[in-house]
Amino acid sequence: MNRRVLLVPMIAVVAAVTVWKAAPMLASAPAATWRVGNDAAMRQGRNYDDLVADSPVRLAVTCDEPCRVYVFSHSDTDGTILLFPSPDLQSDLPGLLPKGSHVLPGKLDGKELAWTTRSGVLPVTTFVVVAAREPVPELEALLPRVRRWTNSVMTDRSLAVTQPKDVEIVGAPRQPLPAALLQRAAERSFTEDLVNGPLTPDAVLDGVWTGSWRVREKPAAKPAPAPAGK
């Protein structure tokens, strides 16, 4: 019998089995979409977005299995800031997100929360998201040691950035991201135009996916001067 006749079907079977085995892995990749604005004015973020100070920012995450999601921001002038899961953030979302779709940072008393762009943080801020099946030790070690968003300080429960007490702070201004995983994630936004959709598997850690989004933060527009004589 012609060996070539047998070889072609065998190759097809091997290829089909390979695709079948890869399908669950592809299906389990979490997806993330950056959102800017509120209500009718909300839109998806674009890489190197030009955003004015105090623009509302949220992150929609979809996962087909429970996952842990970490969100950080970084700039030369503001350093590294923890967005989620912040020890001082009160919301309806747990640290381990259940299967399904969620919008971070979540809600409090039925009101949707939002981070905001930082006034005066120029010219570029990088937002980084990491999703994982299990807690990531190098990120867990950072959570109590970096500046973080909180709604436990302001009387109206609005979000603000605060500094943890009684610990040595890491991720200071003009310092690189304080974890190799975060640095690898941030570097994706240098070359990728699409920052929304399935996250990319990390090159080093199994069961970990990452993405990033760069924005240019502009000062808020100054109010127009009042007409002469008024």
What is the mean pLDDT?
85
Distance between the termini: 99 Å
How large, in whole angstroms, is the Cα Rg? 21 Å
Order of helices and strands: HEEEEEEEEEEEEHEEHEEE
Shape: globular
* Biggest β-sheet strands, sense, barrel: 9 strands, mixed
Q: Spans of 5+ residues with little confidence (pLDDT < 50)? A: 5-27
Q: Summarize the amount of helix as a percent range.
A: 10-25%
Portion of residues in beta strands equals 25-35%
Structural class estimated from helices and strands = alpha+beta
Q: Helical stretch count?
A: 3
Give me the oligomer status.
single chain
- Compute the number of strand runs: 17
Report on this model:
Helices cover 18% and strands 34% of the residues. The protein contains three helices and 17 strands. The strands form three sheets. Strands 3, 5, 6, 7, 12, 13, 14, 16 and 17 form a nine-stranded mixed beta sheet that branches. The model is unreliable at 5-27 (pLDDT under 50).
